[in-house]
Amino acid sequence: MFEVYDVILLPLIVGIVEIFKRTGVHKKFLPLISLLLGIIVGVVYVTDFDWKQGILVGAMLGLSASGLYSSSKNTFEKDDEQ
């Protein structure tokens, strides 16, 4: 399923999410963006449109890229900007 060079997918997802962050997207949405990017990469690139396996692999990629702890912390943290 994974090749050695596929390890570059994680930093690639992190980099794309960082671009979203720098363009002003609220940090609460960054884990969701990471998850969606992971699923897209998983379905299209890793599993060649095998939807079931692609979503599973993509979810692992997206969650790994964003960090499970920081994702849940940012999502459920009280917003002080209101």
Describe this structure in words.
The chain crosses the membrane at residues 29-47. It comes from Sporosarcina ureilytica. Keywords: Membrane, Transmembrane, Transmembrane helix. This is Holin. The chain has 82 residues and is an all-alpha fold. It has one domain. It has four helices and no strands. It is globular and about 35 Å long.
Low-pLDDT residue intervals, each spanning 5 or more residues: none
Q: How many beta-strand runs?
A: 0
The number of distinct structural domains comes to 1
Secondary-structure element series: HHHH
The separation of the N and C termini measures 45 Å
Round the mean pLDDT to the nearest integer and report it. 85
Question: What is the overall shape?
Answer: globular
Question: Based on helices, strands and strand pairing, what is the structural class?
Answer: mainly alpha
Main sheet characteristics? none
Number of helices: 4
Compute the CA-based radius of gyration: 13 Å
**Proportion in β-strands:** under 5%
Q: What portion of residues is helical?
A: 55-70%
